[in-house]
Amino acid sequence: MSSSSVVSFRTLLAKEILRFWKVSFQTIAAPVLTAVLYLLVFGHVLEEHVQALPGISYTAFLVPGLVMMSVLQNAFANSSSSLIQSKIMGSLIFVLLPPLSHWQLFSAYVAASVVRGVVVGLGVFIVTAWFAPPSFAAPLWILAFGVLGAAMLGTLGLIAGIWADKFDQLAAFQNFIVMPATFLSGVFYSVQSLPPFWRTVSHFNPFFYMIDGFRYGFFAQSDVNPWLSLGVLALAFVVTALIAVNLLSRGFKLRN
Question: Rounded CA gap, 57 and 185, in Å?
Answer without folding.
Answer: 19
